Each structure stands twice: as structure tokens, then as C-alpha cells.
């Protein structure tokens, strides 16, 4: 193998930097907007130097119940993650250990569910929730998100458990476990990075979900992702308020991703251990 | 302590593949029994049936006088060491070893004592807090042993436990395991495809092929008195030579003719049925003779010399005899393409080179005669 030259490294760095700029520019714009005085927000060319202000945050906090919005987001995300894992992890395990020749096909079918256009599922689901009286409650969004997330968790845990040698469960059984005991005491903890990655994906999907929540929640159950849009006034768009709200909507999820980063990568690349 | 009996046990998988066919085997209490055979011979399936990890399709599996066909693995109190070790990756060495005791709700103090004792015995004390991923292959192997030992089970089952170790470590662990077994006197069933492990470790060795036991005997007997062509070819390294021969008599004494050569079989009590046969001679049963025309000798030409240090393994052409390779070695391990040559081991200090003609004599008691049709020793 040829050694990587200094020049190659420089090129690589340059490429990565360009890449980062493309991806981070909107984020930078969003962040800066929240601190810009209203008159500077839409100035062209954009002003890089401005007098930072917290006016937008003061406005948002005084006119909106940010705590309640965050609580809704949290309840929906955690609720859907818990339900998705309760259903998806055992389902993935069962499929991974099944000797049935179509087990793999079923696992891929679950992945397919994730690919359904969300809008297509929304209308029948909306009517269903209306008929059983859950429309407007957190439950409606939680169940809708669970449908999509659980399919994904099933598929992801299926591949995780497939990578886990059967020997482990057999060793646990000869050590005195029941098959269920072997699953709970050995397979589940051995696949914990997969479980954590699943939680992350579920929470992220549900936290960022706008479509389901905007149709299925009421004013008092609406999460922050939907609230960001209320910055769209009838006559004008309050970009500053939107930037400030976006802070509240993004920071929790960024923090979570930062802390659990390594599980996230393992989950995406399907590493076991 | 346990006695394990296979009473006409068969295992047929859903695919229709019969892994074990009407197996009859009695494993004595406290015995170290080795199941050896080529891959796919059914040895691992037999072991897994003892553990309860495979269902018995037909027949009875009796453990300690009790039919165990339908007992779950946890109710058999049998410890198994897996080929992959199957260490729990999320648990430390200490917790790996203690796992079986915790599941069985042994009091905490007893667990600590037992784990400490086993760790001491296996020299694992300083690694007790490490995770399996941070251990070397040999250490992982010892943890797997520890996990089995700590439970004082009825029997140990070992499924090729040394196959993932390098050669030096394997040799070391071989004697360690044999020593541990003698110390604990717990019935042990050890599966391997390595005939050196089989020969050195077992009190008795069962050679298996195609789901059946070919011979069950002490290692010495397997080597000296192989029951059939398969056992003769499987046991012994370098492998035995097979030559096409014809049994007969000369001056009233039994002889076997191999091509132009006539080997006397003085030591044979029982008369050989006259006719075609296969003659098996181990590479180490040949001696070099100075006299090229002595009776009862074979002349062969050196084709290739492998220097093994203490010995030379010479591959020789025998112009006036036919070497055969009866199709009995495990189906997937047969090598048909190589040209058959006579393998002979001689003193490592001899100066030999390609093209040399040597005269070889054979100790008559080391000649094995087999029926060419059934493959059974005559």
C-alpha cells in the first residue's frame, strides 16, 4: 500500500471542510438568526457582524409555554420509543432465531413498512383515531410513531441478534437459564448497543416528527416541532422567534446524540459488542 | 458424577439429514471419553444431544439411569465448553464464571469462594475484572473452562475447545484439561477432529464416521488394532499406507503378496481367508535394510523428502506394487488428485535424495489386513 502523502491529507481536509460548510451553513444561519436584531435578519448580503440580542428568546418565552411544548415532545418521543422497543426487540429476536425459511423475508417486510409514505398512512389513521376518541391526545401520535418506529426497531434488532452467536444462549441454557431467561440475561444485554441505538433512532424520529403531530395533536398536546411553525404569522414570518424556538427543539436531541454518539455509530454500522 | 448411555439414538434434522444413526454408546462414570471423526460425522450432534441442545429423534438417551430425552438443558446439570467459548461479552470474567451459580441461586458468599478457587486453579485471578474482549485466546479458553468447573456439574461436555488456539498453546491446554479431568474425576465427553487430542487425552476414544461409531477403544488399541479401513486411515499421523494385496500361504505359513513382494505374517494366529485384500502399513513400521535382495522386503524409489527434524518423512514410488486409497476418509476430506506414494518415516539424520532406491522391511506384527469390500480388519 502506498503511503498517504502530505498533499493527499491536505486535499482530504479541504474536502471535508467544504463538506462541513455545506451542511453547517443552514445551522449557522438558524443559530445566528435567533440572536440578530430583527432589522438585520433579512439584510442582504447577510451581516456577519451584529449586536447580539436575546429579544427573540424573551418574546418566545413570554408568549409561548415552551415548557409544555417540550414536555409534549418528550412524552411523545419517550412513549413511542418505549412502545416500539417493547414490541420490536422481542419481534426482532424471534425472527433472528426462527428456523422458518421466510423469517428473513418477514424482517425485510418490516423494513418496508418504514418506507411507506407517511402521508398515505396518515388519513386512515386520522379517521381511526377520531372514531376511537384518541384524536388530539398524545396517544394518537405515540401510536402512529410506534407503527413506523417499531418496524424499524424490529428490523434493526433482527440484524443485531442475527450477528449474536446462538452459542451464547445455549451456554446460558446449559448454565441453568430458561430460553426466556437466556434472552433476558444474555442476549439482550449482549446486544445492548443495538438497543441503545434503537432508542436513539426512535426518540429522534419522534422528536423531529412534524407531520403526524401537526394533524393528530391539539393545542395543549402539541410538541415543539409543530410549535416552530407558529412563528409563521399571517402577515409576516418571525424568523427570529423561529430561530429561538429552533434552539429549544434542537438542543435536547443534539445533547443526546453527543452523549450516546458511539452507540449511534455502532447501530448504524451494526457492530456487536 | 454421571453415566451417560446412548441407546440406539438417532438424530434426523428437518432437512432429512441423518446426523447420528442408531448410536449405541456407554460413557462410564468418571471417564474421559473422546468423540473423534471428520467434520460432519455426527460427533458434535451427539454431544449437543447430551447437553439437551438437540432433540433426540429416536432411541433413548439415559443420564444416571434416567431417560433424559425430554429434559431441558437446565435440568441436566451438565456444563459445556463451546468451540467459540461463548463467553458472555457484557460480563466480566468474574461474572462469567459466577453466572451459572447466580442463575441457580447459590448464596453470594459461596459464589465468591468458588469463583476465587476456580480462578486460582486456572490462574485467572488477575483478570477477574476484565471483559472477555480484553483477554487473549488462551485466557478466554480458561474462562470457558472455569465457567464449567465452578458448577461441579454431573458431566463436562467439550466441543473442540482447543481448535481456536495456536499450536503451542493447544499442546499446553491439552495436558491441562486432561489433568483437570483426572483431578475432578467428572465424566467428560470431548469432541475433536484432531486425532492427536483424541490419542493423548481420552481414556477411551470413539471414532465416528457418517453418524456411526466405527470403533470404541483405548487410544493404543485404536492405533495397534484398527477395526476397519476408516479407523486405520483416520488414526495415525502421517497417515497409514494402503496397498493392494493378496493373502495366501507359502510353505504352510500365512503371507501377503503385494505386487512382486511377499511379506510373511508369522505372528498371525488366525488364518487369513485367501484372496484379494488391502494391506495397511504405518509409515513408522518400515525399517531400512542394507541387503537389497533379502526376502520379505520392498524396494522403493525416493520421490520427495520432508525433513521433520527428528524424522524424515519420505514419499516413495513403489514400481511393482499398487497403492490404493480406499474411499473411506470423511467425504469432504478426500483428496483424489494427489498421486499416491508410499509414506515412510526414517531417522532424521539419514542422507537421502530424490531417485535413491531403498530396501524396506516391515515388522509383520505391524501389518494390518482389511477386507477390500467391507473394509473390516481381517
What percent strand of chain A? under 5%
Biggest sheet descriptor of chain A: none
Question: Oligomer, anyone?
Answer: heterodimer
Mean model confidence by pLDDT of chain A: 86
- Main sheet: strand order of chain B: 6-7-8-3-9-10
* Chain pair forming the biggest interface: A-B, 21 and 27 residues
Question: What characteristic shape of chain A results from the CA principal axes?
Answer: globular
Cα-based radius of gyration of chain B, to the nearest Å: 24 Å
Q: Strand share of the residues of chain B?
A: 25-35%
How does this model look, in words?
The complex is a heterodimer of chains A (273) and B (378). Chain A has 273 residues and is mainly alpha-helical. Helix content of chain A is 75%, strand content 0%. The longest helix of chain A has 32 residues. Chain A starts with 5 loop residues before the first helix and ends with a helix. Chain B is elongated, with a radius of gyration of 24 Å. A six-stranded mixed β-sheet of chain B has the order 6-7-8-3-9-10, sandwiched between helices. A five-stranded antiparallel β-sheet of chain B has the order 13-12-11-14-20. Classes of the chains: A mainly alpha (273), B alpha+beta (378). At the A-B interface, helix 8 and helix 9 of A face strand 6 and helix 2 of B.
Amino acid at each position: 500500500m502506498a503511503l498517504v502523502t502530505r498533499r493527499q491529507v491536505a486535499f482530504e481536509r479541504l474536502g471535508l471542510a467544504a463538506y462541513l460548510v455545506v451542511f453547517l451553513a443552514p445551522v449557522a444561519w438558524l443559530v445566528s438568526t435567533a440572536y440578530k436584531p430583527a432589522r438585520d435578519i433579512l439584510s442582504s448580503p447577510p451581516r456577519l457582524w451584529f449586536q447580539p440580542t436575546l429579544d427573540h428568546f424573551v418574546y418566545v418565552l413570554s408568549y409561548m409555554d415552551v415548557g409544555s411544548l417540550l414536555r409534549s415532545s418528550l412524552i411523545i418521543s419517550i412513549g413511542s420509543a418505549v412502545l416500539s422497543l417493547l414490541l420490536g426487540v422481542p419481534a426482532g429476536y424471534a425472527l433472528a432465531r426462527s428456523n422458518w425459511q421466510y423469517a428473513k423475508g418477514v424482517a425485510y417486510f418490516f423494513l418496508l413498512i418504514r418506507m411507506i409514505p407517511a402521508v398515505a398512512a396518515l388519513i386512515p389513521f386520522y379517521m381511526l383515531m377520531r372514531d376511537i376518541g384518541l384524536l388530539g391526545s398524545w396517544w394518537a401520535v405515540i401510536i402512529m410513531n410506534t407503527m413506523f418506529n417499531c418496524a424499524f426497531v424490529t428490523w434493526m434488532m433482527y440484524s443485531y441478534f442475527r450477528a449474536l452467536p446462538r452459542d451464547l444462549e445455549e451456554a446460558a441454557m446449559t448454565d441453568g437459564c430458561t430460553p426466556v431467561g437466556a434472552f433476558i440475561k444474555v442476549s439482550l444485554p449482549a446486544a445492548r448497543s443495538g438497543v441503545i441505538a434503537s432508542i436513539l433512532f426512535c426518540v429522534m424520529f419522534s422528536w423531529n416528527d412534524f407531520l403526524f403531530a401537526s394533524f393528530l395533536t391539539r393545542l395543549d398536546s402539541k410538541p415543539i416541532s409543530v410549535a416552530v411553525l407558529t412563528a409563521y404569522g399571517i402577515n409576516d414570518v418571525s424568523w427570529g422567534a423561529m430561530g429561538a424556538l429552533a434552539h429549544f427543539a434542537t438542543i435536547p436531541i443534539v445533547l443526546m446524540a453527543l452523549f450516546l454518539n458511539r452507540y449511534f455509530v455502532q447501530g448504524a454500522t451494526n457492530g456487536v459488542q | 458424577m454421571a453415566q451417560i448411555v446412548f441407546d440406539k439414538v438417532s438424530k434426523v434434522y428437518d432437512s432429512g439429514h441423518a446426523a447420528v444413526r442408531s448410536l449405541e454408546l456407554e460413557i462410564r462414570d468418571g471417564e474421559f471419553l473422546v468423540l473423534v471423526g471428520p467434520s460432519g460425522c455426527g460427533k458434535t450432534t451427539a454431544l449437543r444431544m447430551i447437553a439437551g441442545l438437540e432433540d433426540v429423534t429416536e432411541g433413548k438417551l439415559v443420564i444416571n439411569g434416567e431417560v433424559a430425552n425430554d429434559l431441558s438443558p437446565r435440568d441436566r446439570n451438565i456444563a459445556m465448553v463451546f468451540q467459540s467459548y461463548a463467553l458472555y461479552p457484557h460480563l466480566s470474567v468474574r461474572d462469567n464464571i459466577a453466572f451459572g451459580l447466580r442463575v441457580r441461586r447459590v448464596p453470594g458468599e459461596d459464589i465468591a469462594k468458588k469463583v476465587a478457587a476456580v480462578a486460582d486453579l486456572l490462574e485467572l485471578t488477575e483478570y477477574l475484572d476484565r471483559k472477555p474482549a480484553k483477554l487473549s485466546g488462551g485466557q478466554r479458553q480458561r474462562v470457558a473452562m472455569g465457567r464449567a468447573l465452578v458448577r461441579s456439574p454431573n458431566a463436562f461436555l467439550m466441543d473442540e475447545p482447543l481448535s481456536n488456539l495456536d499450536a503451542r498453546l493447544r499442546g499446553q491446554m491439552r495436558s491441562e484439561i486432561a489433568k483437570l479431568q483426572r483431578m475432578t474425576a467428572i465424566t467428560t465427553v470431548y469432541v475433536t477432529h484432531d486425532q492427536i487430542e483424541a490419542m493423548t487425552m481420552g481414556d477411551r476414544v470413539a471414532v465416528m464416521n457418517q453418524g456411526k461409531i466405527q470403533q470404541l477403544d483405548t487410544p493404543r488399541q485404536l492405533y495397534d488394532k484398527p477395526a476397519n479401513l476408516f479407523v486405520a486411515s483416520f488414526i495415525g499421523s502421517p497417515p497409514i499406507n494402503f496397498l493392494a494385496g493378496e493373502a495366501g500361504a507359502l510353505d504352510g505359513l500365512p503371507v501377503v503378496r503385494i505386487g512382486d513382494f511377499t511379506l510373511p505374517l508369522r505372528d498371525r494366529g488366525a488364518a487369513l481367508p485367501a484372496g484379494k485384500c488391502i494391506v495397511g502399513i504405518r509409515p513408522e513400521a518400515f525399517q531400512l535394510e542394507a541387503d537389497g535382495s533379502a526376502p520379505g522386503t520392498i524396494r522403493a524409489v525416493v520421490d520427495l523428502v520432508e525433513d521433520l527434524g527428528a524424522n524424515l518423512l519420505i514419499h516413495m514410488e513403489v514400481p511393482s506394487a499398487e497403492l490404493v486409497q480406499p474411499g473411506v476418509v470423511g467425504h469432504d476430506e478426500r483428496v483424489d488428485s494427489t498421486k499416491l506414494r508410499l509414506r515412510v518415516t526414517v531417522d532424521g539424520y539419514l542422507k537421502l535424495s530424490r531417485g535413491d532406491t531403498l530396501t524396506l522391511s516391515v515388522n509383520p506384527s505391524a501389518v494390518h489386513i482389511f477386507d477390500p469390500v467391507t473394509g473390516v480388519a481381517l
